[in-house]
Amino acid sequence: MEQGLVFRNFRQCLILWTGMLLASECHGYNLEEVLEEIDSRSDYQLRGNGPTFTRWGRSECPPTSEKVYNGYMSGPKHNFGGSGSNYLCLPTNPQWGDYSAAFNNKRAVIVGVEMETSSGKPYPSYLQDHDSACVVCQTINSNSILMVPARLTCPPGWTSQYNGYLMSEMSTANRRRTEYICYDGSPVQIPGSGSRENQAMVTPVEVLCGSLDCSKYVSGRELTCVVCSR
């Protein structure tokens, strides 16, 4: 019998059994098999049913979420005009459509993003020039996702997916503007990277107070961040 039909019919029988009403229609079911199906369906309902987020700097999702795919952090070339301003997590297994192999200077460009950690704070200096990993995750049993800057813990009632430091492209005259992202506090190295292409870099974000309250946001300090779900 088709599994879905077994499940629906058995639910009806459970209602009868719960009410202490035994019917001939309930005979012939393998209780162990049906309970296994109920368990598998319950597990499916518990996993991967919430909003998605990108975990920058890591290739695996936290236990409170489920991996969709992992890949390479990518974005606009720092000294080119145009292109996008956001970062993307490009999969490790791209699929190509109709393409031209020749480089066209009238197209947009996307490049890999390297870590800039030469100062040794807040990330160790050995991560300098290594390409950034990323993974797209789907939360479990949640409806909302939120990145909170300048915090390591989530607001009450929210679950922490991961925390780390606020990152963006370097802030110098010849650099492109990018989005601010929450980069994992314990990033991994992509094997074989570290060649220092310097096409695009991501670096911790420091506070420059003045318009920001200097008693709370101290100039020169790197900002933390946390990604939360509920």
Automatic annotation (TrEMBL):
Keywords: Signal. Residues 1-28 form the signal peptide. InterPro entries: Ca-dependent_lectin (IPR051077). GO terms for cellular component: extracellular space. PANTHER family: PULMONARY SURFACTANT-ASSOCIATED PROTEIN A (PTHR24024), SHORT-CHAIN COLLAGEN C4-LIKE (PTHR24024:SF18). This is Short-chain collagen C4-like. It comes from Mytilus galloprovincialis.
